[in-house]
Write a structure and sequence with these properties.
Elements lengths: L4 E8 L9 E8 L4 E5 L6 H8 L7 E6 L2 E2 L7 E4 L11 H11 L6 H11 L15 H14 L4 E5 L7 H18 L2 E6 L2 H7 L2 E6 L4 E7 L11 H17 L29
Parallel strand pairs: 3-8, 3-9, 6-7, 7-8
Antiparallel strand pairs: 1-2, 1-4, 4-5, 9-10
Bound molecules: adenosine-5'-diphosphate and magnesium ion (MG).
Length: about 280
């Protein structure tokens, strides 16, 4: 089952004299929920995700998983990056087995690997080498490896941004479905508003200099989501407006997040926004 995650008053500064890159972040994510973090490049998304993974300690505040403060990485949560971190000299099935081997789960390993490859649709590529696979297939291998250890939480750092639009959309839908089926908590970092709305129960809009949580937008739409449905398009406009309001203006000049934001009319070019 998924993990309850608490981002508890996080402020972070790299080095002693620098300005904070993240400031006063506060958010509770319940088990099995999926949250998309969206924000301009450099606003601190990856830094925050590293903290959620236990790879970096904040200078103030903490991350709690199921009530316990995170101080180091753990096999129960998994991170996936833009480029899948696979071993090219190993086969597909060997790569999928790695997570299980690292965590000492030898029993039933072959069966589990088979099951995971089936889940991500790569059963027929099990003996192939990694470099013979497409980018999307490689991300599926990374996903299968992450899922094999039955994680409580998956942290995704722009995992689909190097893929073509069709592959990207397929994986967004599939990863979301698998996480919901298994009750896995999902935190997704993206700069793509459609990706955030396709996968997130909530979308958190971040501001920068310093990185803050500007807005939290609920996405009360059924899955799988249809990007041309009027409700989806309405939310896209809403998130877009909040996002534009957050760009490159100091935090102190911003409207408070509880103030209403006017909705712009839908524009075709915002249909798939790469920021
Ligand atoms: N190890 C580090 N040392 C110093 N500054 C860093 C380090 N990592 C990231 N930063 C700075 O923190 C800010 C946020 O970076 P990052 O989290 O990578 O942003 P994002 O993922 O939103 O693009 C940037 O200004 C970046 O230069
Ligand atoms: Mg980043």
């Amino acid at each position: 089952m998924g993990a309850n995650l608490q981002i508890n008053g996080i402020t972070h500064t790299f080095g002693r004299t620098a300005e904070p890159v993240l400031k006063d972040l506060q958010l509770d994510i319940t088990a099995g929920q999926s949250v998309a973090l969206i924000g301009e490049s450099g606003c601190g998304k990856s830094t925050l995700l590293h903290m959620l993974a236990g790879l970096l300690m904040p200078t103030e505040g903490c991350v709690r998983v199921n009530g316990r403060q995170i101080t180091r990485p753990h096999a129960d949560w998994n991170m996936m990056f833009q480029r899948p971190a696979l071993y090219p000299w190993l086969s597909v099935k060997q790569n999928v087995a790695l997570g299980l081997q690292f965590t000492g789960q030898k029993q039933g390993l072959r069966e589990r690997v088979r099951e995971m490859l089936q889940l991500v649709g790569l059963s027929d590529r099990r003996d192939d080498r990694i470099q013979d696979l497409s980018g999307g297939q490689q991300q599926r291998v990374a996903l299968a490896r992450s899922l094999a250890v039955e994680p409580q939480m998956i942290l995704l750092d722009e995992p689909f941004s190097a893929l073509d639009a069709f592959t990207r959309r397929g994986l967004q839908v599939e990863v979301g479905r698998i996480a919901r089926d298994r009750g896995i908590t999902l935190v997704l970092v993206t700069h793509d508003i459609d990706e955030a709305l396709t996968m997130g129960d909530r979308v958190v809009v971040m501001g920068r200099n310093p990185g803050t949580f500007r807005d939290v937008v609920d996405v009360p739409l059924a899955y799988p989501r249809n990007p041309v449905h009027p409700d989806f398009m309405r939310l896209r406009s809403q998130v877009m407006a909040r996002f534009e309001a957050s760009i490159d203006t100091p935090a102190s000049d911003k409207p408070r997040s509880d103030q209403p934001v006017s909705e712009p009319t839908f524009r075709e070019e915002s249909a798939h926004v790469q920021l």
